[in-house]
Design brief:
single chain; 37% helix
Length: 736
């Protein structure tokens, strides 16, 4: 067993001090060491780092009085270590001061000393369970006093008389005074929390590193208390976020961030987009989707992430916003900041869930963008507002079916007539917005495969795994940036998979398939290959010659009654099909493929290749330096295209995060940033409840019957039925 060894050293003045340390001798114990005290000088204990497993058998009050310490903290740790071995813990108690205010005496008592105050413990209306009694008036103590000549603290009084039972070793280690998170443990805890690891998993990791839960010096509750202390130190969460974003900007020349505060100085809106997001928008910014998510911070502020899709059909982030409400003016501010960050480049299409505030803001800021409503949300609203499964099924067919405009109008009129919905105001309003959801009326407009906001919902789900409602704004931003960095690493991985290896041919048009495999990314090629198969069975029914082009009437094998017309300009080598899938998805349709086969063309013409789906999608930023793709110096732009430089930028970001965490740059903040305050806590989701003219919240009314006490979902006049499986839209955006 381990025990204390006592060594002797001279201080140069003829005096000899004794320093305790651990040796592996199984025979030496503390009482034998004390017996070897020389000249009555006592045993000097200057550090407790090396006696954690010391034996204290046989020590009494006389032997304890022979110890002296350099300060009160070492004396406390010494007595607390003794208490841990014996089965109790120690608290700091009274101090005695002289007239100058200097402390010359200190008492350390047993953790069960004294009695708990009776105040508020026996209240009849007490809500919480009364805590168990942990004090019983124990008189055990150790008193130390300062000896003026030596400047050291000697044991003046020691009493080891307890009026309670001692705890066993494992139970004694669980007393609060014996549990401590060391500095290294706190650093590890913070690092793993930033990585999104849960508290339970972190505690299990520490236990595994220590060799078991019984060898861990703290409990899970101590970790939670430490996290609470750190959050309390963040006196201004909003200012910390702005400092953090400013730190990111020091390592990213393309970083853009903006904030807005209310009259009281409280943070109201915050928007940011880094350099990679801004450059991605220049290449993949034709389509923009955004939706709000909730319960991701302790203030209840909605989070709006503006996303798109890259050349691997992966979700990419263009910008992120923290709002305090979802009013129209808030979304107007968001889109204004977004347009400023993207140098005025507008998306050609926007997909949202159809919230009126979003719709109005898009109309004001992005008037030329085609606004599409999320198909999934529309089906859910149809179920709530109409409640007839037959209508939901028919509505889905009208919305997503491959219909002509005339067929769509006839089918819709028949659906409304059969179900007697001519006077339903919601159905009438839905038809007035048909240009925002009917596929046949949006044919030819590029949406990159978007039909729903499922990409936003999927990102919200992933973020929800690492972000909780109790997190601060700074924690959310840090977690979100780490998740975005992971998404970008998956893009690098997809780039690697697209250039390594050749796809095995599986279609009858091997030449076109090989060309597509060389041009498109691996993911896009796998989506396009089925169209090659179906295009190989497309036949030519008739040919008409026009002044500027040739018109080919195409039909599928054994289905001559349905024709598609493909216009081919021989001089310009362009192709246009009546189905307009090329314009909608950016990939040649099977009808055009059938014509290429008929004309014996073995290479996909350049007019049918959309650069954004190619392996070289980002090369345009390097080649077109005069266009709006250039944000800053071309050398930075070229480095961005290099994988090694991307990793270097990540290292710079981590360095900036560390500097921001240490408070670097706080003194250089602008005045409006320095005075910003935390946002007000939002008590409900989104905009909150309605308010009357006096400012107080009123009771909600049903939007169907205008009666208080229920909503449209539980309205007696609104028949409810479950949405059938056929009414569900595939959550993964695809080309089909």
């Amino acid at each position: 067993m381990w025990s204390i060894a006592v060594g002797f050293s001279s201080n140069g003045e003829g005096k000899t001090s004794v320093v305790a340390g651990i040796v592996s001798s199984p025979t030496l114990n503390l009482s034998e060491s004390i017996a070897e005290d020389i000249n009555g000088e006592g045993v000097g204990v200057d550090s407790m780092d090396d006696i954690a497993n010391a034996l204290w058998d046989g020590i009494d009050d006389i032997e304890m009085k022979k110890f002296h310490f350099p300060n009160r903290q070492v004396a406390y740790e010494f007595y607390n270590l003794y208490a841990r071995v014996k089965g109790f813990s120690v608290r700091k108690s009274k101090v005695f001061r002289i007239k100058k205010g200097e402390i010359v005496r200190q008492d350390f008592v047993c953790h069960k000393e004294g009695f708990r105050e009776e105040k508020n413990r026996m209240r009849e209306n007490r809500q919480r369970e009364t805590k168990v009694e942990t004090r019983c008036g124990c008189c055990a103590k150790m008193r130390i006093r300062l000896v003026g000549d030596s400047g050291r603290w000697h044991v003046a009084l020691f009493s080891d008389c307890h009026n309670h039972a001692m705890l066993e070793g494992k139970q004694s280690a669980m007393l609060p005074a014996h549990r401590k998170l060391k500095e290294g443990d706190i650093l590890g805890l913070n690092s793993m929390r930033k990585a999104g690891i849960s508290t339970t998993q972190i505690y299990n990791f520490f236990a595994d590193q220590s060799g078991g839960f019984d060898k861990t010096n703290f409990l899970k509750v101590d970790m939670k208390n430490q996290m609470t202390k750190q959050k309390q130190k963040e006196h201004c969460d909003a200012k910390a976020v702005l400092v953090y974003l400013k730190g990111l900007g020091s390592g990213d020349p393309g970083m853009f961030w903006s904030h807005h505060a209310d009259e009281e100085g409280k943070l109201k809106q915050l928007f940011w987009a880094d350099g990679i997001s801004r450059m991605d928008f220049q290449v993949f910014g034709e389509v923009l989707a955004f939706d709000a998510t909730y319960r991701k911070n302790k203030y209840g502020c909605p989070i709006v992430v503006l996303v798109g899709v890259n050349h691997h059909c992966q979700t990419i982030v263009f910008g992120t916003t923290i709002l305090t409400n979802e009013k129209e003016e808030s979304y107007v501010w968001v889109l204004e900041q977004f347009m400023a960050a993207m140098k005025g480049k507008e998306p050609s299409a926007v997909i949202t869930d159809g919230a009126p505030a979003m719709r109005n803001a898009i109309t004001r800021i992005l008037p030329r963008a085609h606004h599409r409503l999320c198909a999934w949300h529309l089906l859910q609203n149809a179920q709530i507002n109409v409640g007839d499964p037959n209508f939901v099924k028919g509505f889905k067919s009208c919305m997503l079916g491959n219909l002509s405009v005339g067929h769509f109008k006839k089918k819709w009129a028949q659906l409304v007539s059969d179900l007697n919905l001519e006077d339903n105001p919601w159905v009438q309003g839905l038809y007035e917005k048909r240009h925002m959801w009917a596929t046949c009326l949006m044919r030819g407009k590029f949406f990159a495969g978007f039909r729903t906001t499922s990409r936003c919902e999927g990102m919200h789900s992933q973020i929800g795994r690492i972000v909780r409602s109790r997190n601060s704004l700074l924690e959310f931003v840090q977690y979100f940036e780490r998740y975005v960095n992971y998404m970008r690493w998956t893009e690098v991985d997809a780039d690697y998979k697209s250039v390594v290896g050749d796809a095995v041919p599986k279609t009858n048009v091997r030449a076109l398939e090989k060309c597509a495999a060389n041009v498109y990314t691996r993911t896009v090629f796998l989506k396009f290959r089925p169209w090659l198969n179906s295009g190989s069975v497309i036949k030519v029914a008739a040919i008409k010659e026009k002044s500027s082009c040739m018109i080919y009437s195409m039909y599928k094998y054994c289905k001559p009654d349905k024709l598609w017309h493909v216009a081919h300009d021989v001089q310009l080598s362009t192709f246009r099909c009546s189905c307009q899938r090329m314009e909608t998805f950016g990939l040649p349709c099977d009808h055009i493929i059938g014509l290429l086969v008929h004309l014996d063309i073995d290479v996909i013409p350049e007019s049918l290749i959309l650069q954004r789906w190619c392996k070289s999608a980002k090369d345009c930023m390097k080649d077109n330096s005069e266009s709006s793709y250039k944000f800053w110096e071309s050398t930075i732009l070229e480095d961005y295209l290099d994988t090694v430089d991307v990793m270097a930028k990540h290292v710079m970001k981590l360095k900036a995060k560390m500097e921001a965490a240490l408070g670097t740059g706080v003194e250089n903040l602008d005045e409006d940033v320095d005075n910003v305050k935390n946002p007000a806590v939002i008590m409900s989701k989104g905009c909150g409840g309605t308010s009357n003219v006096n400012g107080s919240k009123g009771k909600r009314k049903c939007t169907v019957c205008k009666v208080e006490g229920h909503n449209k979902t539980t309205c007696p006049q609104n028949k409810r039925a479950k949405v059938s499986n056929e009414a569900a839209v595939d959550s993964n955006a695809s080309f089909f």
